[in-house]
Amino acid sequence: MQDIPKVGFVSLGCPKALTDSELILTQLSAEGYQTSKTFEGADLVIVNTCGFIDDAVKESLDTIGEALSANGKVIVTGCLGAKAGHASDNLVKEIHPSVLAVTGPHATQEVMDHVHAHLPKPHDPFIDLVPAAGIKLTPKHYAYLKISEGCNHRCTFCIIPSMRGDLVSRPVGDVLKEARALFEGGVKELLVVSQDTSAYGVDVKYRTGFFDGKPVKTRMLDLVEELGKLAEPYGAWVRLHYVYPYPHVDDVIPLMAQGKVLPYLDVPFQHSHPDVLRRMKRPASGEKNLERIQRWREMCPQLVIRSTFIAGFPGETEAEFEDLLAFVREARIDRAGCFAYSPVEGASANELPGAVPAEVREERRARFMAVAEEVSAAKLRERVGATMQVLVDNAPGLGKKGGVGRSYADAPEIDGTVKLLPPEKLSKQLKVGEFTKARVMSTQGHDLIALPI
Ligand code: SF4
After folding, report:
1. Distance 343 CA to ligand 1 centre (A)
2. Is 359 helix (H, G, I), strand (E, B) or coil?
3. pLDDT tens-digit profile, the chain (453 residues)
4. Mutate to test the pocket of ligand 1, among 154, 155, 159, 285 (most ligand atoms within 8 A of CB)
5. Going by DSSP bridges, is the β-strand pair 74-78/44-49 parallel, antiparallel, or unpaired?
6. How much distance in Å is there from the Cα of 196 to the middle of ligand 1?
7. Protein residue closest via CA to atom 1 of ligand 1
8. Is 319 exposed, middle or buried (0-12, 13-18, 19+ CB in 10 A)?
9. Where does ligand 1 bind, in terms of residues with CB under 6 Å?
10. pTM for this predicted structure
11. Fewer CB within 10 Å of terminal CB in the chain, N or C?
12. With b meaning 16 or more CB within 10 Å and e meaning fewer, what string describes 246-263?
């Protein structure tokens, strides 16, 4: 009998890269390949890389080096695969000339072609063993749904468009079919991701697609409405990431107020001051973001906003930075992350005048985080005494000694959690991937402490 070929797989990078990994793993499994947990036990290794910031580039190059020395047969895919080197058009090949092949991101077919060339497919694939929802790297009860690739913006600190190209929206019918398969496969929380979720469909002029024979526009509002309808019979959550504060996003807020999708928006504002936003060439930089947030909160008071910011962008004055601190306070951003500006090779912001010294960038980041944490902690304290729906992520022994979950206000991996106390009722059990109601007793840093009821 033919030995089953084994592929080692390393997935680095953001949630968008993770969905690429899932597509490749699904295809490998569909064709009868097995995965190996070790480099040594594999016949070939695939490394899905990230090329966004210099640390990620280093991590990716190091991992490729480790895979090469432990295994020798390595295929590289992902963002770093699309990056030019110092002396050639490909950085990976320049540093690791012995890799078998290099592709850019979202190149499942290309990766599979290279796999076939170096490790032929097994004779008799057990195609039926692949669940309709594909192979997922996230825990079974939540999944990322990628709705588009690439980006039409040209933010000056970002090199994603040069690596991933302009926006390409996936057909709305395909996206909805995938969402339905995920819910049918037991997913209780769907995380919608892209580079710019609010731009969905712009590239195809909001073309009308079809789902179950019904026309649906390739447009954020229509997509979100349909996702809400698909999630409802499963009691599942739909969470939106990477949404820009464009006026048309206002139309999505009523769906949140009505409970059709989670009242949670991940809006990467990056800054508040119009001059800094202009230097960053941010989408929606001309919008009045504070007024917009206030209007959203009037329409949907339970709305939680997560955002990321950059401190010490080239040319940022102390006054501009203080504007940012005031914005975080006034907008009451529930969850905020902040990077000290760091030049990314190839980004046009590197050419801007007025570089802020590294220690000032770091000091501003620390000042920002102190304010953001104050705001966030005050908002968390308002929840004490409330009863919330919590999705259980971890509950050893059916939660007899407690567990960990998340409320609508917490996206996995980036926000806080809800620490669940042992239930008082003996009959109460906590099960991973199921919802429980819990009464919030207190707060602890970014987390809530709650009693399952
Ligand atoms: S919106 Fe800006 S930061 Fe985001 S991917 Fe596009 S260019 Fe990069």
Report:
1. 15
2. helix
3. 457 889 999 999 887 788 889 888 888 876 778 888 899 999 999 999 988 778 888 999 999 999 999 999 999 999 898 888 887 888 999 999 999 999 988 888 889 889 988 898 765 433 344 455 666 777 789 999 999 988 999 999 988 888 878 999 999 999 999 999 999 989 999 999 999 999 999 999 999 999 999 999 999 999 999 999 999 999 999 999 999 998 999 999 999 999 999 999 999 999 999 999 999 998 776 678 999 999 999 999 999 999 999 999 999 999 999 999 999 999 999 999 999 998 888 889 999 999 999 999 999 999 999 999 999 999 999 999 999 999 999 999 999 999 999 999 999 988 999 999 999 988 999 999 999 999 999 999 999 999 999
4. 155
5. parallel
6. 7
7. 153
8. exposed
9. 151, 153-155, 158, 160-161, 195-196, 283
10. 0.77
11. N
12. eeebeebbebbeeebbbb
Q: How far is the CA of 259 from the centre of ligand 1 (A)?
A: 29
Q: What is the Å distance from ligand 1's center to 158 Cα?
A: 6
Residues in the annotated binding site for [4Fe-4S] cluster:
14, 50, 79, 151, 155, 158
Q: Which amino acid is at 137?
A: L
Ligand 1, atom 5, residue with closest C-alpha: 195
- The structure tokens listed for 123 are 């004779």
What's the N-to-C CA distance of the chain in angstroms?
A: 55
Q: What is the per-residue burial (b if ≥16 Cβ within 10 Å, else e) of 393-412?
A: bebeeebeebbbbbbbbbbb
One-letter amino acid for residue 178 of the chain: E
Angstrom CA distances, 196 to 8, 109, 149, stand at 32, 24, 9
CB-neighbour burial class of residue 351 (10 A; exposed 0-12, middle 13-18, buried 19+): exposed
Structure tokens at 414: 């980036």
Residue bearing tokens 């139309």: 251
Angle at 416 between CA 178 and CA 424, to 5 degrees: 100
Alpha carbons 293 and 430: distance in angstroms, whole number? 36
Burial class of residue 447, CB neighbours in 10 A (0-12, 13-18, 19+): middle
* Ligand 1 atom with minimal separation from the 158 CA: 8
Say which residues have a Cβ less than 8 Å from residue 317's Cβ, sequence separation at least 6. Answer: none
Q: Report the atom number in ligand 1 closest to the C-alpha of 282.
A: 2
Tokens linked to 179: 């969402």
Atom 4, ligand 1: residue with shortest CA distance: 195
Cα-based angle 86, 282, 216 (whole degrees, multiple of 5): 105
How far from 424 is each of 401, 420, 429, 431, 432, CA to CA, in Å?
10, 11, 10, 16, 19
